[in-house]
Automatic annotation (TrEMBL):
Predominant location: cytoplasm
Transmembrane segments: none
InterPro entries with a match to the protein in the record: GrpE, GrpE_CC, GrpE_head
Source organism (scientific name): Emticicia soli
Protein name stated in the entry: Protein GrpE
Length: 185
């Protein structure tokens, strides 16, 4: 007879029983090991598939980002193309006016020609959304005007624009150039 750790005697039947239990546990452990390996292989496959999807999605996003950046640059470069095409006839008119300065001796036809060209230019720019700002005799507004100097004025002109040094402009109701003005003090 053998003794266990606590000093108790172990019979032959108990030894056989323990050996049988150990054999069953080993068989169960082997089956569980195969099951764990199958689950691990399945998870590794899913991980590889997810990684592949991620890499493809990332590459697709990078291509999208590059393409949109390129389109944005092209849009910015060609944004003024329509305006320039409409201004070319005005430039042609100015070239013809310059040639006529050499041959014309009277001033009145030149004034009329320049006035026509100026009106054509204003109409072209107005069609594109450019609108001049009316500032003279208006109340001074820092959102629209830039005060370059102040002059003493009567009570009726105090805080109002007395003179407009440089005209301001709106482009589609957005201020693109502030009017430079003289304000009454």
């Amino acid at each position: 007879m053998a003794e266990n750790k606590e000093g108790q005697e172990i019979t032959e039947e108990q030894t056989t029983e323990n050996t049988e239990n150990l054999a069953e546990d080993t068989a169960t452990t082997g089956a569980e090991t195969n099951e764990v390996e199958d689950i691990q292989a399945k998870l590794e496959g899913q991980l590889a598939e997810a990684k592949d999807k991620y890499l493809r999605l990332y590459a697709e996003f990078e291509n999208f980002r590059r393409r949109t950046a390129k389109e944005k640059i092209e849009t910015i470069q060609n944004a003024s193309e329509g305006l320039i095409k409409e201004l070319i006839p005005v430039i042609d008119d100015f070239e013809r006016a310059n040639k006529s300065f050499e041959t014309v001796t009277e001033v009145e036809p030149l004034k009329e020609g320049i006035a026509l060209i100026f009106n054509k230019l204003q109409k072209t720019l107005a069609a594109k959304g450019l609108k001049p700002m009316e500032a003279k005799d208006q109340t001074f507004d820092v959102e629209l005007h830039e005060c370059i100097t102040q002059f003493a004025a009567g009570d009726d002109k105090k805080g109002k624009v007395i003179d407009e040094v440089e005209k301001g402009y709106f482009l589609n109701d957005k201020v693109i150039r502030y009017a430079k003005v003289v304000v009454g003090n």
